[in-house]
Each structure stands twice: as structure tokens, then as C-alpha cells.
Structure to design on (69 residues):
């Protein structure tokens, strides 16, 4: 089995697990963290999830770092 096949199987398994645990994951405050910018005016809403993007980036970096070892 090549590396690409292993990565595809792992990505597929992660997607399946996310789907199974989605009812629990959706209750987490991801996207509503302090530092996320929300501008809400009449007829205009802007949402920039700065802190959420940083947290997701750190989590993905750690996971990829663990897979490389």
C-alpha cells in the first residue's frame, strides 16, 4: 500500500468519525471564540473567525507533525 493510499484511508476515516460525532461537535463553541470579529449592522453582517482559524491551524499542524514522526 502506497503512502497516498494510506493518507486517503486516514482522511476518509476522519471524515466518517466527524460525521458520526457531529451532534456533539456542533455543540462546541468553535466559531464563537473570543477574538472572532463580528460586525452586525442593519442589512450587513461580517464575521471573521480569527481565533477559530488560528486554533484550527494549530490543531492541524500538530496532527500532521505527529503523522510525520
Amino acid at each position: 500500500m502506497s503512502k497516498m493510499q494510506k493518507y486517503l484511508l486516514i482522511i476518509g476515516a476522519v471524515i466518517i468519525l466527524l460525521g458520526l460525532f457531529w451532534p456533539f461537535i456542533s455543540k462546541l463553541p468553535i466559531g464563537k471564540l473570543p477574538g472572532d470579529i463580528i460586525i452586525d449592522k442593519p442589512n450587513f453582517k461580517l464575521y471573521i473567525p480569527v481565533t477559530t482559524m488560528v486554533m484550527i491551524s494549530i490543531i492541524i499542524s500538530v496532527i500532521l507533525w505527529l503523522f510525520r514522526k
About this structure: The mean pLDDT is 87. Residues 36 and 67 are 30 Å apart (CA to CA). The longest strand covers residues 37-41.
